[in-house]
Amino acid sequence: MKFVDINFLLSVHKLAQLPDPTLPEIAFAGRSNVGKSSLINTLVGRKGLVKVSGRPGKTQGLNFFQLGDEAYLVDLPGYGFAKVGRGMQDNWQKLITGYLEMRSTLCCVVVIMDIRHGAKKQDTQLISWLKQHNIQCLPVYTKADKLSGNQRDKNAAALDAGHTIASGQRIVFSAKNGMGKDELETALASFAKI
Ligand code: GDP
Description:
Helix content is 34%, strand content 21%. It is α/β, with parallel strands linked by helices and 194 residues long. The longest helix has 17 residues, at 86-102.
């Protein structure tokens, strides 16, 4: 399954604005600047579909992209950026939690982490929250091109241990050289049954 027939649909800032739940949905989550936009752009083969920025933390909604007549891809706002005020973070959290809890068509949340860093508290919290809510989670360790093969394996194993993830259930990825792209396509197509 190639994720090529993709178009921006709408940006949701309130739950009332959500499109009708008619298609399977795959959401993408991660800390600000982790490489979420780059991962989505690589997946769909379009450099500029999601704006990549070196500067994290801009306020944004849930961005919906439609994949042909088959699925929605949902880019969730990045989390964990201290410069956004506490009130703003609470609003984001309410919107995202509300969305994740109520969305009947949600079939997977891709949780993107930087392979160079150890397990971060917010990622651990999100992963265990998803498990508690019986929401399928696909961990992806990105920016893999930034490490040598040996170091990559070591860091991936440390993240697996930190988040209690089995090595067969996550993907090591790079937006720079395409590592893990085929694996990601296959996994997402299987979750969405497309
Ligand atoms: P987002 O805030 O999570 O959407 O992160 P972006 O996709 O905007 O990426 C943040 C920065 O990391 C940008 O400078 C990207 O070029 C860089 N980046 C993202 N993914 C990769 C990757 O796989 N490899 C490398 N080397 N850089 C990456």
